[in-house]
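Question:
Now give any protein.
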Amino acid sequence: MTTPDFDEIIARRATHSAKCDNLETYYGLSPDEGIPMWVADMDFRPPACVTQALRDFVDQGVFGYFGDDTAYKNAIVWWMQNRHGWQVDPDAIFSTHGLVNGTGLCLQAFTEPGDGIVMFTPIYHAFARVINAADRKVVECPMVLDEGHYTLDFDTYDAQMTGREKMLLLCSPHNPGGRVWTQAELEGMAAFAKRHDLIVVSDEIHHDLVMPGQKHIPMAVACPEIADRLVMMTATTKTFNLAGGHVGNVIIHDAALRRRFEKVMGALGISPNSFALHMATAAYSPEGAEWVDALCAYLEGNRKVFDAGIEAIPGLKSMRLEGTYLAWVDFSGTGMDPAEVKRRILEEAKIAVNYGAVFGLGGDDFQRFNLATPRARVEEAVARMQAAFADLQ
């Protein structure tokens, strides 16, 4: 495999990029000045094997419905076994239009309007949007911030439960906190779900993006005893920067749960995107695995540059990133209210970030920065942040 050039600056303006071409619409930032660190996609090219698979598909010239997904499913099985020690049954795999779509399908399949959906907050903001749109109730269980590290307080969560909650929606690794959950923590989540008779939907879209020295454990591997209430969600999209392909895997080993999910899929007439399945099949390969290893090493370098620069500003603390490429920065030590923090980041540093409040309870004092970009851009963002908060230094 040719060594990936993650330092390459790729022009993404005027490419229908949500992250770059919406800067002015959502943030009032000129694309000439603003640094987009909000939408969670990467500014890197995917592995060459993915691009070649797409070229081959285009060159054959006919773009009909996708058929015979055996190779696609076998690639998923190979990847999960070799990268995560997880044995997946090909018959348990459903292809959805991404994992936000997968979340919505799970809500339809396993819950009813008015049911409570439990989440450990702060958490990925799209979850609450989908839950509310489906007329379900968001139930926030705030995590505990313990010396800059998120932990879980199950005694408090147990007391919150009313019996109307039907699902626990997990994010593993956790977005935005970057936690890679331990075996003991996953066991605690599983026990909590059993105590309150909750279906567990584990969104593991960031499972391949872990920092050196960390180890992601799939919930299905950590807690096989909850297979009768477990839905796993994975995807190539975050791992290989294929988000525009809108493809995800919902993996359900329990036959009864599978039938319920399959019924909803059938009722909505959902079928896969041919382009995305060709890309995903190519990505889940030895060449793709080498590329991911190189990516994670590069992201760790970006993390070090970002954390050192941010923590040189008094009052700022970047949560130690264990997984994902999303830095979660605590501004509470500045004594500033969130509005002033946002103003400085936006108007002075001219950086587009995700504001912490949208991630739910516990997020108000934080901002989320996307580090999956060439290092020169991370260095520029750090320099701008230091200038915007220069009075604190």
Remarks:
- The chain has a mean pLDDT of 96.
- DSSP finds 15 helices and 15 strands in the chain.
- The radius of gyration is 21 Å.
- The longest helix spans residues 286-310.
